[in-house]
Amino acid sequence: MAKQTSNTLRLTTTHKVLIGIGAVLLLLIIWTTAAYNSLVSLQTTVDENWANIEAQYQRRVDLIPNLVLTVKGYATHETNLLVEVSKLRTQWQTAGTVEAKVQTAQAVDSALGRLIAVAENYPDLKANQNFLALQDELAGTENRVAVSRTRYNEAIKNYNAATRKAPTNIVAGLFGFAQKPSFQAQSGAEKAPEVKF
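User: That's the sequence. What structure does it adopt?
Assistant: C-alpha cells below.
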C-alpha cells in the first residue's frame, strides 16, 4: 500500500511539471501572437502613410502638365527647365521602389521650385488666372505632401522603435520585420533654388 501511494505522488508531480510547462508555452504563444499582431498593425500604418504620400505626389504630378503648358506660353526660352520637369514627372510615375520614388520626388521639389522662381520674372504670367489657380493648387498639394511626410515619419518612428525594443525585437527578427527608412530632406534642401538666365 505504501508503494502504491508513492507512485501516485510521483504521477501527480509529473502532472504538475507538465501543466507548468504547458502554461509557460501557452503564455509564450500568446505573447508572440500579441507582439506579431502589434508589429503588423504598425507596419500597416506605415504602408498607409506611404500610400498617402504617393497620393499627394500623384496629385502634384497630375498638375505639372498644366503648369508647364501655362508657363511654356510665356517663357519660351526656359525650355530646358520645362523638359526637366516633364521628364521628372515621367520618372516618378515609373519608379519601382520607395527609395526611387523618394529620390525622384525630391528632384521634382527642386525643379518645381525653380519653375515657380522663373515665373516670377514674367509679370504677365504672374497675373494669368490659370497660372494663379495652378500655383494655388500646387501650394495646397505641397502642404499636403508635407503633412503626409510628417505622418509617415511618425509611423516609421513607432514601427522602427517596436522592431528594436526587447523582447519584441525577437519576434521582429523571427518574422522578418526589418527597419524602414524615414523620409529625409534632400541634401542642400535648406538653400533656396538658384535660377540662372
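The chain has a mean pLDDT of 83.
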